[in-house]
Amino acid sequence: VKLPVNSNIDDTEYVSKMETNIYMSNQLLKDVDYMSMWHGLEVRVPFLDIDLISKVGAIRPSNRHKRGWPKYLLTASNQHILSPKIIFRKKLGFTFPMEKWMRNSKERFKSLVNADKSALKLIHAFDKGRDHWSKYWSLAVLKHFNDN
Question: Which of 33, 91, 109, 140 is deepest in the core (most CB within 10 A)?
């Protein structure tokens, strides 16, 4: 859904429109689709219905956003069933537990890289907790693309 973006809107509204037009469609939805298909799931995102987005977009921004109140329209309209603990809790992110997976499946991950001298040095540093998992993972990705 492409929403018009003009310079006459406030910063909150501008960021919201940019997230909808760029980040959500180019990154988030692609990631959800990829990860769900990988596991044989069909994910539905009911709040991204085009008609609903158009109707919400027609509501004045001052009625859609309230500072200090997350997802104002959604949570305020459901506050009779959502406790304030839920509405106002700290936002939790999601990250894949790559380091845990790599530590729990050492041989499997080691088989994903070209185990030359410098790679083994990096793997050893990771095993000892002296290097970040992303460097090790980069070796696996590079090998994959070099082999294909």
Answer: 109
